[in-house]
Amino acid sequence: MLEKGRIGTRQLSTLTFMLVVGDMMLIYPSVITSYAKQDAWICALIGVPLGMALMALIMKLGSMHPGENLVQITRSILGFWPGTFFSCFYLFFFLIGTSTHTREVGDFMTSQILQYTPIRVIILMFVIAIGWGVYHGLETIARTSELLIPIVILFTMVLAICLLPQVETSNLEPVADTGVVSFAQGILVSIIYPVGETIPILMVLPYVANSAHRMRDIIFSAGLGNLILAILVTISMLVLGPFLTQHNIYASFVLSQKISIGGFFERIEVIMACSWLIATYFKAIIYLYAFIVGCAELFKLKHFKMLILPSTLLVYGMANLVAPSLTFIIITIVPYWVDWDTTLGIILPGMLVLIQLVKSRRKSKSPPQSATEG
C-alpha cells in the first residue's frame, strides 16, 4: 500500500472533526447569515442532524469497498475509465481546496494580524508546514491532531462563555421571517460546507484499523463539529446581530475582540485565532494528503513522497493565483463554492452508493451458473 502508517478510530475522529470545523470556524457565521439572515441560527441547528446523515452516506460509500481509497472505489463502481474521469474531478477539488485554505490563511493574517507582511511570505510558510506534515505521514498527522484538538474545543467554549454577558435575544427576532428559498439555502449551506467537505476522509479510510464502532464515532465527531459551528453562529447572532454577522467575513474574530471581563480578561483575539489556524492547518494538510495519495494511486506509483515537493510548489502558485483579493473571494468564489461542494459532497457520493446498491442487488438475483458437462 502507498501508506505504511496506521491510525485508530479515535484519531480518524479527530481528523474528521478538524475537517468539519477547519476554516469554517472563522467564516461560517458570515456565509450562512448571508443566505438565511436572522434565521441562520435555526438553519445551523437543523444542519447538525442532517450533516450527520450526510456523514453516514460518505462512510457507507467507504464501507462498500473495504481497504480501498476514493480513487479505487470510483474505479470499482464505475469501471476503469469512467472511474478515472470522476477521480480526476475529486483530485482537482482537493488541489483547489488546499490552495483556497492556504489563501484564506494568508488573507486573514495580512488583513488582521501581520498587516505589513507580504501575503506570499505567509503562504510560503504555511505551504512548507503542510508539506512537511505530509512528508512525515498519516500517523504523525493524526497523532498531532489528537494532541491539539483540545485547544480548538477549549478556545471555542471560552469564546462562547465569555460573551454571554453581551447577549441580546432581540437580535434573533423576528423568528422564521426569512423566505422559503433563503431558508432552504441556509439549511443546504449548514450541511454542505461543514460536512460535505469531509470527502477527503475516504482517502484515509484504508489506513484505519478496523473497529466495531468506527462509523458511529465518525458520525458523532462530524455532528460535534457541526454543533460547535452552530453555537458560533448563534453567539454571533446574539452579540453582533444578523447585519454585522453577515457583513463581517471574520465574525468569530470580531467576537473575540469584544470579550472584556472586569477590564482584565480582554484582547484575546490572537489566542482565539490560533485555534482557527490549527483547525485550518489540519484541513489543508488532509486535502493535500488526499491529492498526493490520489495522484499516486491514479498513476499506479509505488511511493507518494516523490510527489510532495511538486505538489507543494503547485499549491503555493495556485494559492497566489486563486483570487486577486479577499473581496474577489467573498463576491465571486463563495457563492459558487456551495454548488461545487454539493456536486462532489452529496450528488456524486449518493450516485456511487446508488449504483453499487443496484449492482449488488442484480448480482444477488442472478441465478448461479451450473457446471456444463463435457
**What strand order characterises the main sheet?**
1-2
Low-pLDDT runs of 5+ residues are none
Helix content: over 70%
> Tell me, what is the CATH class?
Mainly Alpha
Mean pLDDT: 88
Largest sheet: 2 strands, antiparallel
Overall 3D shape: globular
Compressed to H and E, one letter per element, the order equals HHHHHHHHHHEEHHH
Strand-residue proportion: under 5%
- Secondary-structure-based class equals mainly alpha
Give the number of DSSP strands.
2
The name of the CATH superfamily reads: Hydantoin permease
Summarize the structure.
The protein has helices spanning 9-21, 24-36, 40-64, 70-78, 80-113, 119-135, 138-162, 180-192, 214-247, 251-257, 269-298, 308-321, 326-365, and strands at residues 260-261, 265-266. It is mainly alpha-helical.
Structural overview:
The chain is mainly alpha-helical. It has one domain: Hydantoin permease (Orthogonal Bundle), CATH 1.10.4160. It is 73% helix and 1% strand. The protein has helices at residues 9-21, 24-36, 40-64, 70-78, 80-113, 119-135, 138-162, 180-192, 214-247, 251-257, 269-298, 308-321, 326-365, and strands at residues 260-261, 265-266. Strand 1 and strand 2 (265-266) form a beta hairpin. Helix 2 (24-36) packs antiparallel against helix 8 (180-192) and helix 7 (138-162) runs antiparallel to helix 11 (269-298). The mean pLDDT is 88.
Q: What attributes does this structure have?
A:
single chain, 374 residues, mainly alpha, Hydantoin permease, two-stranded antiparallel ribbon, 2 strands, 73% helix, globular
